[in-house]
Design a protein that fits this description.
Distance between the termini: 20 Å
Strand content: 15-25%
Helix content: 40-55%
Order of helices and strands: HHEEEHHE
Shape: globular
Length: 99
């Protein structure tokens, strides 16, 4: 985990997904829409028995499994991008679950 706090890991993952994965204006607008709406996004870090990486059940909530965050995942920016895309699209795109 490189001695980073969980908050730092999440912050870097979201910023990295916006800066490195979202390469077009419309893709970046998904982040602006999801994080910029009234009430923003609630982020939970939990540790249930059923392992997952990241999940989004609705348009305003993202869950991270603590073991995934502690594993120094190389795919976290892509997973955040995918979750934000699902949250922006809504409908059949939700729930998003990266296992």
């Amino acid at each position: 985990m490189d001695n980073k706090s969980i908050i730092t890991i999440i912050e870097e993952a979201v910023n990295g997904a916006f800066n490195n994965v979202a390469t077009s204006g419309p893709q970046r607008n998904r982040f602006r829409t999801v994080f910029g709406v009234d009430g923003g996004v609630t982020i939970y870090v939990d540790n249930p028995e059923t392992f997952y990486k990241i999940k989004a059940l609705d348009k305003s909530t993202i869950y991270f499994h603590i073991d995934y965050l502690k594993s120094s995942p190389s795919d976290i920016q892509q997973k955040v991008f995918d979750a934000v895309t699902a949250m922006n699209d809504g409908g059949d795109a939700l729930p998003y679950n990266a296992e």
